[in-house]
Amino acid sequence: MASNAGGDHREPGNEQAVVNMYSSLRSELNQIYSKITELEMEVSEHSLVMNAIQPLDQSRRCYRMIGGVLVERTIKEVLPAVQRNKEGLEEVVGRLNEALEKKKKDIAEFEAKYKIRIRKSDSEVKDDSNRKESSAQGVLVGPASSSE
């Protein structure tokens, strides 16, 4: 996810360098997508925990994992901490979404500058044609009857 401030100012010398830079950009994009997905899952888990403990008695015992150590607290102490963590995660997801949009824009500019077009491999083309055939299978249409 390392991104250069202001973009990459190096001009690739040959076609292979362009391909390498493009694949590097795509790799960074995929890493951002993965991190966003991971953090969104954590936000979801935090929401589940909050929804589970919110209606309970605030003085009830509750256990929380802090740095690999399970500590005993009350719901009154844990709920605000879980809420703060969730808000922090949402903020990070927001920043990652901004970085994702910037990376998409950088890739689009790179594609336009070097006239890059993604070509499907033979196996993907075959898969697409198989999908079209299989989607048409299984449909039975009877003869149209004029008298009902």
Automatic annotation (TrEMBL):
Residues 86-113 form a coiled coil. Residues 122-148 are annotated as: Disordered. CDD domains: Prefoldin_2. GO terms for molecular function: unfolded protein binding. It comes from the Eukaryota. One of its GO terms (cellular component) is prefoldin complex. Gene3D superfamilies: 1.10.287.370. Residues 122-134 have a biased composition (Basic and acidic residues). One of its GO terms (biological process) is response to cold. Keywords: Chaperone, Coiled coil. Belongs to the prefoldin subunit beta family. PANTHER family: PREFOLDIN SUBUNIT 2 (PTHR13303). This is Prefoldin_2 domain-containing protein. It comes from Cephalotus follicularis.
